[in-house]
Specification:
single chain, 354 residues, alpha+beta, 4-stranded antiparallel sheet, two-stranded antiparallel ribbon
Length: 354
């Protein structure tokens, strides 16, 4: 029979040895009830009041723990600016750092509020949803949903990166549909009904994003189409996603002409893909020229695009500390900046594959 107490060292209840064997000592409890009855009315004197004594405070702690577990918005972790990544036991440190531990301890909640780190965190959430969701602990999975909720709320308020979050929610919903069907194999932590509720929440978020109405800025002044054509084209060359160029071309007939510019799509292909990859996917137009636009979308389906972020996580090769770029950490190296290596989202996940 398991011992129910605060921990295994708890003295438990008081027992007295008699001729008939060990019996539980009830005198303290009786005295406590009598004293408590003098201060409480009969209708207020219930079973829950008995648990306020020192001998039964474990029940109050259990109630508090259950309350915390039932509130998904409560954070069960300490946000830190850096963590030590160790993959094995040493004399100084026992155990190893997991993906869920790193996800809990690093401050991702504040990172999504930074425009330089927003895309990085969203990409990391997408990769976790695709393959690493089951490797997270229960607290890490709850933290994942909390951060995702903050991301959705930020997008609804700012009305930016809508398509990016739609793709993230669709990826997560597809993964959960596959995982829920395998509940008998214990691939998810928690009750199945709670995961179904989370899936319904994701559908609700998707509906909110579909119904979002982008308001036109009230400021009066120069707009994008008022710029000279060469400046418009120069700005379009800064876009790294071909779909953004296509959607921009649907605004007006002038932008439609600019969105079909061959050098524009050529630079986009050369930015994301290597010469060898491009040579394997050559497509000619009716005029006998290379159709760089069709080649781009063909290459996207065959090869991963180049990822570039304003701010990333970095790993110090000297002290094995993981932190955000620009964050100071206790390092004994003479030049800590030279020891830091930037990690792409996939590199961050690969760091915890043992």
């Amino acid at each position: 029979m398991p011992f129910l107490g605060q921990d295994w060292r708890s003295p438990g209840q008081n027992w007295v040895k008699t001729d008939d064997g060990w019996k539980r000592f009830l005198e303290e409890k009786v005295n406590y009830i009598n004293d408590l009855g003098s201060y409480c009315k009969k209708d207020e004197f219930n079973k829950e009041n008995l648990f306020n004594s020192n001998n039964y405070d474990v029940v109050a702690k259990k109630r508090k723990k259950d309350l915390l577990n039932n509130k998904a918005k409560i954070q069960h972790f300490h946000q830190e600016k850096w963590i030590y990544v160790h993959k094995g036991s040493t004399k100084e440190r026992h155990g190893y750092c997991t993906l869920g531990e790193a996800f809990n301890r690093l401050d991702f909640s504040s990172a999504i509020l930074d425009s330089r780190r927003f895309n990085y965190v969203v990409r990391l959430l997408e990769l976790i949803a695709k393959s690493q969701l089951t490797s997270l602990s229960g607290i890490a999975q709850k933290n994942y949903m909390n951060i995702l909720e903050k991301v959705v709320q930020k997008v609804l308020e700012d009305q930016q990166n809508i398509r990016l979050i739609k793709e993230l929610l669709q990826t997560l919903y597809t993964s959960l549909c596959c995982l829920v069907q395998r509940v008998g194999k214990s691939v998810l932590v928690g009750n199945i009904n709670f995961w179904v509720y989370r899936m319904e929440t994701i559908l609700h978020w998707q509906q909110q994003l579909n119904n979002i109405h982008i308001t036109r800025p009230a400021l009066k002044g120069m707009i994008f189409t008022d710029l000279p054509l060469y400046l418009q084209l120069n700005i379009m060359q800064r876009l790294t996603d071909g779909r953004d160029i296509v959607y921009l071309g649907q605004v007006s007939s002038e932008l439609q002409v600019l969105s079909e510019d061959r050098p524009l799509w050529k630079k986009l292909c050369q930015y994301h893909f290597t010469e060898r990859q491009i040579r394997k996917r050559l497509i000619l137009s009716d005029k006998g020229q290379l159709d760089w636009k069709k080649m781009y979308f063909k290459l996207v389906r065959c090869y991963p695009k180049k990822e570039q972020y304003c701010d990333t996580l970095q790993l110090c090769r000297h002290c094995h500390i993981l932190s955000w770029k620009g964050t100071e950490h206790p390092c004994t190296a003479n030049n800590p900046e030279s020891c830091s290596v930037s990690l792409m989202p996939q590199d961050f996940i690969n760091l915890f594959k043992f």
